[in-house]
Amino acid sequence: MTLKQLKYVVTVAETGSITEAAKQLFISQPSLTAAIKELEQEFGITIFHRSNKGIEQTPEGDEFLGYARQLLEQANLMDARYTGKVHGKQRFCVSAQHYSFAVEAFVELLKADGGDKYEFHMRETQTYDIIDDVAHRRSEIGVLYLNTFNEPVIRKTLRDHGLSFTSLYRAAPHVFLGKNSPLAKKKEIALSDLAPYPRLSYEQGNHNSFYFSEEILSTMDSDKEIIVRDRATLFNLLVGLNGYTICSGVISEELNGPHIIAKPLAVDDYMEIGYILPSDTPQSALTQKYIRFLKQALE
Questions:
Q1: Relative to the CA of 25, which of 10, 80, 100, 197 has its CA 20 to 30 Å away?
Q2: For the whole model, what pTM was predicted?
Q3: Does the residue 154 lie in any domain?
Q4: Residue 95's closest CA among 145, 136, 134?
Q5: What is the distance between the alpha carbons of residues 159 and 43, in angstroms, rounded to a whole number?
Q6: By the 8 A CB rule, do 226 and 243 touch?
Q7: What phi and psi, each to the nearest 5 degrees, are found at residue 196?
């Protein structure tokens, strides 16, 4: 295995084409194909399926590419540290539940370390996809929460995927509301107060289990349910319909504006917010810095 071979497979994955990758790498298609085949034979895996329609990553190729990207990033960091040379774009990816503090930390990381060329991904996505992204190295780090209800299932899923969870902050449950909601003047909100209003929650796709819900008390009955996929839609509906969602209460007014407020919820529960990482892979320099910015945002 060489760094050049790793660069070859990553370029093929990014372009989705042997032809286009060969052009970008300034080598012939047969040479590129041979280099990839040598790598596959060395590790006894198939990285790409090839057909008349093009190429597609296999599940084991998907995992291999995650490792390859990390190794290339580490090599670039060493080059930059000891020679001053930076090769190509810096790349970094975060997968997270819909937390404004995770975006705030992402913004700070970009300001501090984006440099002149970068490709950073901020994936606010479904809970199982966060785990899958980190397990297959599509993302360097994931951000999600545990509590007494979901912890046994989430921790087992993390173990099955070779991941670890590190706590950042234990939050008391809050309710997000529009600032003009009829409940906005209450100092604390009881569950009975919420009954007349629409409950908003995030869709969880094929893994739409209560255990993967982004909101606590997901088994609580509600007559009015609205399921959304993104934070902007949820916030608009909170304001427009006097809806609510149950959350950590951590919000950035700078990023999300002044129209959403958080009120304590009168329940005996908690949200243990933390990050997940591969158990057997050293953290990259960017991952370490992102964790520091997460801690700062939560302070």
A1: 80
A2: 0.78
A3: no
A4: 134
A5: 24
A6: yes
A7: -75, -10
